[in-house]
Write a structure and sequence with these properties.
By secondary structure, this protein is mostly helical. It has two domains: 65 residues, Orthogonal Bundle (Helix Hairpins); 104 residues, Iron/manganese superoxide dismutase, C-terminal domain (minor pseudopilin epsh fold, 3-Layer(bab) Sandwich), CATH 3.55.40. It is 50% helix and 10% strand. It is built from eight helices and three strands. A three-stranded antiparallel β-sheet has the order 2-1-3. Helix 2 packs across helix 3. The radius of gyration is 17 Å and the shape is globular. The protein binds fe (iii) ion. Fe (iii) ion binds next to helix 1.
Length: 200
């Protein structure tokens, strides 16, 4: 079973004016596609080729010889999660999740500020995530480069932000903070986050 690049859940220009079609063309069409191609080249003809993507990632994470495969396979997962974390349909936050955000961050605004600060503060390339733990407590974490919450015990990702420069440079150049504000205020897929939150 080769690793697939899932279809983008919206049109390339659907996230404008916050993320341009040009950015998505490169980000989905080149960067993400290259991770999929590299990961498939690395598993081809090995027993790993028969495993699911999460199993490939967990196997590669436990063996330093497989670091190259880990990086490419984890980026496949992280990018799929990122595309699904965004939506052109501006949404309210479903009440159960909203209650949890208020409980764990003081307010929705408090969450947004903390998410922005964490993503802005991730030094170099990486990701910011809203995750739920075993007790369904919400937490914000960041991961460097290709690192992914999949390898952390009892850590369910609900939303993520890509803070690699390729995610925003064409539209915002060095202004990561402006990219983050635009995405957090306008594009987050709260329905998906609430669905995952509920499915304990
Ligand atoms: Fe990316």
């Amino acid at each position: 079973m080769a690793i697939q690049q899932p279809k983008l859940p919206y049109e390339m220009n659907a996230l404008e004016p916050y993320i341009s079609a040009k950015t998505i063309e490169f980000h989905y069409g080149k960067h993400h596609a290259t991770y999929v191609k590299n990961a498939n080249n690395l598993i081809e003809g090995t027993p790993l080729a028969d495993l699911s993507l999460p199993k490939i990632i967990l196997t590669a994470a436990s063996d330093t010889v497989l670091k190259g495969l880990f990086n490419n396979a984890a980026q496949c997962f992280n990018h799929e999660f990122y595309w699904n974390s965004l939506t052109p349909k501006k949404q309210g936050i479903p009440s159960e999740l909203e209650g949890a955000l208020v409980r764990d961050f003081g307010s929705v605004e408090g969450f947004k500020k903390a998410f922005h600060a964490a993503a802005l503060g991730q030094f170099g390339s990486g990701w910011a995530w809203l995750v739920a733990d075993r007790d369904n407590r919400l937490e914000i974490i960041t991961t460097g480069n290709a690192e992914t919450p999949l390898t952390k015990p009892a850590c369910r990702p609900l939303l993520c932000l890509d803070v690699w420069e390729h995610a925003y440079y064409l539209d915002y150049q060095n202004r990561r903070a402006d990219y983050l504000t635009a995405v957090i205020d306008n594009l987050l897929n709260w329905d998906m986050a609430a669905r995952i939150y509920k499915a304990t």
